[in-house]
Design goal:
The complex is a heterodimer.
Chain A: H1 11-16, E1 20-24, H2 31-39, E2 43-47, E3 54-61, E4 67-72, H3 84-94, E5 105-111, H4 115-126, E6 132-137, H5 139-144, H6 151-158, E7 162-164, H7 174-182, H8 198-211, H9 221-230, H10 235-276, H11 281-298, H12 301-317, H13 319-332, H14 341-346, H15 351-357, H16 364-373, H17 382-393, H18 406-431, E8 442-444, H19 453-487, H20 502-514, H21 521-529, H22 536-544, H23 553-563, H24 566-578, H25 583-593, H26 597-625
Parallel strand pairs in A: 1-4, 1-5, 5-6, 6-7
Antiparallel strand pairs in A: 2-3, 3-4
Helix pairs in contact in A: 4-8, 10-11, 10-12, 11-19, 12-15, 12-19, 15-25, 16-18, 17-18, 17-23, 17-24, 18-24, 19-25, 20-21, 21-22, 24-26, 25-26
Chain B: H1 5-12, E1 17-19, E2 28-34, H2 38-46, E3 54-60, E4 67-71, E5 74-78, H3 80-83, E6 86-90
Antiparallel strand pairs in B: 1-6, 2-3, 2-6, 3-4, 4-5
The chains are: A alpha/beta, B alpha+beta.
Chain lengths: 626, 98
């Protein structure tokens, strides 16, 4: 990637013009909106090496027509490197971040509604000595709510250009374009009290604000009125419940059918393409390897996009912060905070979008903890397995009259089981490795705003791309590996029957380990193939028993009964409730935590928990039925 | 996790210096001291909880915790476990209906 794709006319310009400019600002300063406004679709996500922090690199056009690379740094309040976000910002600004050249200039985005607080960050950035532009964003709100500030006086006091802008209306943005082409020299260091404590810098900021005749705008009336309802003693939780049900409904009732529809289309297309190819290994590779792999990546897109649409609306409107306040009391009991609620809820549909949704959690430790417990929630891929096994082993008798029969009760029990393990794990994590002394629940409440379509669309594109490129490749790779394992070793140029393939050898190899759970090698094969998606175990068991899984679920139940004893079936259910039988989740965890450390730990932990619990379940059931 | 909220609040009502957690909704106070570990105190100061500034108890969450406080232009939700370590002195006797 080149940083300056537009050729410059003279060498002289090259020496002075900016090529890379960093954009910093506190959270809730409208930095992202401004960044999107400047770069539009010409941006991409990237991770800094070795950290979970993500940044965007995009291109903006300067006033003279040149393209300048803009680096969007994480939202930060100060440059005291105590959190990962702040360390990354400081490293990038000082040129210490490997892989990123030191920016030639900085744009600091502040919220003009909250100038005194945000000037603290500006002071610290200016002190770094790079040419700096200070933007007072949300000028439209400032003016509407009767606030005022003398920009010239501010510029004089800070020693940098200052502009009043609005990322939403586009007001004042020519100042940014002029700055990008100006190549001014570094600011004359004025007497900025950057070496002092936060308190002294804050006092300085108040003085600067006073000198610039800063008048803070009034709080929008609507925000107060809406908070009277949304945070009301009775209405608040009620509305929260309605929102939660709506989100849940959206993912289940809209996302699931969309996913199924997409799957059907992909299957049909696969068969269609298959007819065009000559029979043989190549066709199998294309259809069962590549095409299935692509399919298992693509099917997640509807749910991911839907969830991010909903979360985007909730977040941009300001309601998500209120929802977090309402959910906080409950979540604090397990050591998490209110922001974990929505991601955990969506994990009931699928852990993949849920884990991507954790990025609304500012605290790194809480975010990791939420990522680690999300797969314990009973996702929809577990349902076919539960249904099949329960139907095969448990006669459906009424338990509570017409309301609850034994099968539904068993299903409910498995939901509760997953939830309890999630709570237990959260407690364990938060009292050991992820104890967060550094980040108790502190949440800024932004004013209510109308969500903007352009920002929602950009976010969806961003998340969709991130998932396809970064997680998709891993899912694809594992799909191909699984395909190879079922199609090799070849006999006379023909793929083997599944019982002679590499997967079967793996099944046989792990048989001694899973024997105590009441599983034979066939179940072992199922456990391996279900890594692609949990429900695949059913089809695998069908194939191993010579049954077409699609049409004959009754025979499949017979096969299950042939394969498993009752204790074994209970063990299998418990195993599936706890085990990380999902490569897509692992791929997404790797992508969100930017490394294999957490997914590896998660896989190990969940497998151990699943194994031990399944063993206990087996023994207990065996004891009970004796 | 369970504190005797009311009793503690009543007892400390009269004292010149209160914990922010003990103020009632609508009351205003000047921040005096943040008796919290450095990173937490630093974060709160970055949000505006700086000694000398005025803080208003804006509203209470549905369950009474966390509560929303206002410092200058910022509204921040904080749990009681933090706000009881923020020492403040009351402004005026009562500031209802500001």
């Amino acid at each position: 990637m080149t940083c300056h794709p537009v050729a410059r006319p003279e060498d002289e310009t090259l020496a002075t013009a900016y090529r890379t400019v960093a954009v910093v600002g506190p959270p809730n300063s409208g930095k992202t909106t401004l960044y999107n406004r400047l770069t539009g679709l010409r941006q991409k996500v990237a991770n800094f090496p070795g950290v979970t922090v993500e940044h965007h690199i995009g291109y903006a056009r300067a006033a003279d027509g040149d393209e300048v690379a803009l680096i969007d740094l994480p939202g930060i309040y100060s440059l005291v490197p105590k959190s990962e976000d702040e360390r990354v910002a400081v490293d990038v600004l000082q040129g210490n971040m490997p892989g990123i050249q030191r920016p030639d200039a900085v744009i600091v985005v502040l919220n003009s509604n909250n100038l005194n607080t945000h000037l603290v960050l500006a002071a610290r950035v200016i002190a770094l000595g790079l040419p700096t532009l200070v933007l007072l964003n949300m000028a439209d709100e400032l003016q509407k709510q009767n606030g005022a500030v003398d920009v010239l006086s501010l510029a004089r006091q800070l020693g940098t250009p200052v502009a009043l802008v609005s990322a939403i209306t586009g007001q004042g943005l020519e100042a940014v374009r002029n700055f990008l082409s100006s190549a001014s020299s570094a600011p004359e260091p004025l007497e900025l009290p950057v070496v002092g404590s936060t308190r002294s810098v804050r006092e300085w900021a108040v003085r600067v604000g006073e000198n610039a005749n800063y008048r803070r705008p009034a709080t929008p009336v609507w925000t107060k009125r809406l908070d009277n309802i949304f945070l009301h003693r009775t209405w608040g939780p009620l509305i929260f419940a309605v929102v939660v049900v709506a989100v849940f409904q959206m993912i289940f009732a809209a996302g699931q059918p969309l996913q199924n529809l997409l799957q059907t289309y992909l299957d049909v297309a696969g068969t269609w393409v298959g007819r065009l190819l000559p029979e043989g290994l190549f066709r199998s590779l294309v259809i069962n390897g590549v095409w299935k792999g692509t399919g298992s990546v693509l099917v997640f897109l509807p749910q991911i996009l839907l969830l991010f649409l909903v979360i985007g609306i909730l977040e941009d409107s300001g309601y998500l912060a209120r929802a977090a306040v309402i959910a906080d009391r409950t979540m604090s009991r397990v050591g998490l905070n209110g922001k974990s609620f929505i991601p955990l809820l969506s994990a009931y549909a699928c852990a993949v979008p849920a884990i991507m949704a954790t990025r609304t959690i500012e605290s790194k430790r809480d975010r990791i903890a939420t990522i680690l417990i999300a797969p314990f929630m009973t996702c929809s891929a577990r349902l076919p397995v539960y249904t099949m096994v329960i139907a095969a082993f448990l006669p459906g008798r009424p338990l509570l009259g017409p309301f609850l029969n034994t099968r539904a009760a068993a299903m409910l029990g498995l939901y509760v089981l997953g939830f309890l393990m999630a709570v237990l794990t959260a407690r364990l994590l938060k009292s050991t490795i992820l104890r967060s002394k550094d980040a108790p629940f502190i949440l800024e409440m932004p004013p209510y705003r109308w969500p903007r379509l352009s920002s929602l669309v950009l976010r969806l594109l961003d998340r969709g791309k991130a998932f396809l490129y970064r997680a998709g490749t891993v899912i694809m790779l594992v799909s191909l590996l699984l395909w190879a394992a079922t199609n090799f070793p070849m006999h006379n140029g023909q793929p083997p029957a599944i019982q002679d393939s590499v997967v079967a050898s793996v099944g046989h190899a792990i048989e001694p380990v899973i024997r105590p759970l009441g599983f034979d090698w066939k179940i072992g094969v199922g456990l391996v193939t279900s890594l692609a998606a949990r429900e695949v175990i059913i089809a695998t068991l069908g194939t191993l028993n010579g049954i077409d899984a699609e049409s004959r679920s009754f025979d499949l139940q017979m096969a299950l009964r042939h394969e498993l004893t009752l204790p074994g079936a209970v063990a299998l259910l418990v195993f599936f409730a706890f085990a990380m039988q999902c490569m897509s989740t692992l791929a997404v965890v790797r992508r969100e935590t930017n490394g294999w450390k957490w997914p590896a730990a998660q896989f190990t932990y969940m497998t151990v928990v699943a194994y031990v619990s399944a063993l206990m379940a087996y023994r207990i059931t065996e004891h009970l039925i004796r | 996790m369970f504190f005797n909220f009311k009793f503690a609040a009543q007892r400390r009502r009269r004292a010149a210096c209160n914990a922010l957690a003990d103020l009632k909704v609508g009351e205003r106070a000047i921040v005096r001291d943040l008796q919290l570990e450095h990173p937490v105190a630093e974060h709160l100061m970055n949000l505006g909880f700086v000694p000398g500034l005025e803080v208003t108890v804006e509203r209470s969450g549905p369950g009474g915790d966390p509560r929303v406080y206002r410092v200058e232009g910022t509204e921040v939700a904080i749990r009681r476990e933090l706000s009881r370590h923020i020492h403040v002195s009351l402004v005026g006797a009562s500031a209802f209906g500001d």
